[in-house]
Design goal:
The protein is an alpha/beta fold. It is built from seven helices and seven strands; from the N terminus they run βαββαβααβαβαβα. The radius of gyration is 19 Å and the shape is globular. Bound molecules: guanosine-5'-triphosphate (GTP). The site of guanosine-5'-triphosphate (GTP) has 20 residues, from helix 1.
Length: 213
């Protein structure tokens, strides 16, 4: 598959251990459920080119360990992320209660303009649910987050979650709210756009046909 893309966005996947972060990433990239997922040691990486409103966007995704003992390592990956998936497990109130801490880390350590999607995972385990959709939805609203429930097992809403985050970033670039050229924006131009910008810089459009000077 061609690796040609217009933008590259750096994404983080954060949240408590066992929430299903690695399984979500695996489902997104491989289109299948990761059997026997072990705890992530430090950070893992994946990437995929997606179509966002007709534009090819490469998502460079860093899947971080949820375990406390890796916190100092994972924190060093937050810088310069354009988007984040903040994951909890709908069958574990403990992972939901930890969201505020994860959110504080994301907002202080990553780019201040980071786009965050709250993800309630394990939607397939309805009978074991401990956190209602309404409750999490309210939390998302209060904290200006987008919100979706997913199942890494069935694949429900997994791709939609990444696309939702990418779409929001792209909209902000197009409206001028996000500047891809700002250091640490977590956004890079792909080859075609980079060439165009370089050319514009080399050949500034100074001569105007209607100009008498
Ligand atoms: N039923 C169900 N189980 C899931 C789902 N997603 C993950 N799991 C299970 O939850 C457990 C933890 O999943 P992981 O993806 O390893 O969790 P993690 O958030 O990456 O954990 P850390 O790497 O320790 O931070 C595994 O046993 C998975 O099989 C899901 O959507 N549904």
């Amino acid at each position: 598959m061609s690796e040609s893309y217009e933008f590259l966005f750096k994404f983080l996947v954060i949240g408590s251990a066992g929430a299903g972060k690695s399984c979500i990433l695996h489902q997104f990239i491989e289109n299948k459920f990761k059997q026997d997922s072990n705890h992530t040691i430090g950070v893992e990486f994946g990437s995929k080119v997606v179509n966002v409103g007709g534009k090819a966007v490469k998502l460079q995704i860093w899947d971080t360990a949820g375990q406390e003992r890796f916190r100092s390592v994972t924190r060093s990956y937050y810088r310069g992320a354009a988007g984040a998936l903040l994951v909890y497990d709908i069958t574990s109130r403990e992972t939901y209660n930890a969201l505020t801490n994860w959110l504080t880390d994301a907002r202080t350590l990553a780019s201040p303009n980071i786009v965050i999607v709250l993800v309630g995972n394990k939607k397939d385990l309805e009978a074991e649910r401990e956190v209602t959709f309404m409750e999490a939805s309210r939390f998302a609203q209060e904290n200006e987050l987008m919100f979706l429930e997913t199942s890494a097992l069935t694949g429900e809403n997994v791709e939609e979650t990444f696309l939702k985050c990418a779409r929001s970033i792209l909209t902000k670039i197009e409206s001028g709210e996000l500047d891809p050229e700002r250091m640490g924006s977590g956004i890079q131009y792909g080859d075609a756009l980079r060439r165009m910008h370089r050319q514009e810089k080399l050949q500034p459009r100074t001569s105007r046909p209607d100009c008498a000077c």
